[in-house]
From TrEMBL:
This is ER lumen protein-retaining receptor. It comes from Stephanodiscus triporus. It is a multi-pass membrane protein. Belongs to the ERD2 family. The keyword Cell cycle does not apply.
Length: 231
């Protein structure tokens, strides 16, 4: 994947979102308003997408970013699950999205179906075929991985400042990647379009639209960031 300013800004926005969440956990020393299930889904996304980490070298930047995403997300999952006093403050009763039934399994089915229809793994050996299948699964799963977190925020309504900033930068990362695809399509010779990736990227960005609206409204008013009541 070639580098341009939009991809670089997207990657930096993603990294910054992780740093903001680490700061949030370190300063507040609690996981109130944070969805463990979202981060478990993101960890699964990175583990299934970056299976080429130890088999194919692209660049130092590429390898460092992959390791950073996997290790940092695993650290967040560990902190919420097992690190005191953070784990004691995690409210499992608010984080109830059934991610296995409504995220992981449907994405497995969609990845298998897409893999069969498009013939992405045709002509590849068994290992490369499996890599392509897992990559497709990760694309589908990433598009909805933020859902448990957005549901948790809706239930809490009052959004802590660092938590809001973390989610904002996560959404900005995906929006910038859409601009990156448009840029590459116009200026990169031989660029290969992948419409499933486009669809999933747009879907993921659309999930943030409501959050973005209230985020910017709260910044403009200068008051506390809160979401409207349901219904």
């Amino acid at each position: 994947m070639s580098m341009n300013i939009f991809r670089l800004c997207g990657d930096m926005s993603h990294v910054f979102s992780i740093l903001v969440l680490f700061l949030r956990l370190r300063v507040a020393k609690n996981a109130s308003g944070i969805s463990l299930r979202t981060h478990e889904l993101f960890l699964l996304v990175f583990l299934t997408r970056y299976t080429d980490l130890f088999t194919t070298y692209y660049s130092l930047y590429n390898s460092v970013m992959k390791i950073l995403y996997i290790s940092s997300t695993a650290s967040i999952v560990y902190a919420i699950r097992a690190r005191e006093p953070i784990c004691s403050t995690y409210d499992k009763s608010q984080d109830t999205f059934r991610h296995v039934e409504f995220a992981i399994l449907p994405c497995v089915a969609l990845a298998l179906l897409t893999h069969l229809i498009t013939g992405e793994g045709r002509g590849l050996d068994l290992f490369r075929n499996l890599q392509e299948l897992l990559w497709m699964f990760s694309i589908y799963l990433e598009s909805i991985a933020i859902l448990p977190q957005l549901i948790v925020l809706q239930r809490y309504r009052e959004v802590e400042n660092l938590t809001g900033n973390y989610i904002f930068f996560m959404g900005a990362y995906r929006a910038l990647y859409i601009v990156n695809w448009v840029y590459r399509a116009y200026f990169e010779a031989g660029y290969r379009h992948h419409y499933v990736v486009y669809f999933c990227g747009v879907l993921q960005t659309l999930l943030y639209v409501d959050f973005f609206y209230y985020y910017f409204m709260s910044k403009r008013r200068g008051g506390r960031f809160s979401l409207p009541t349901q219904g």
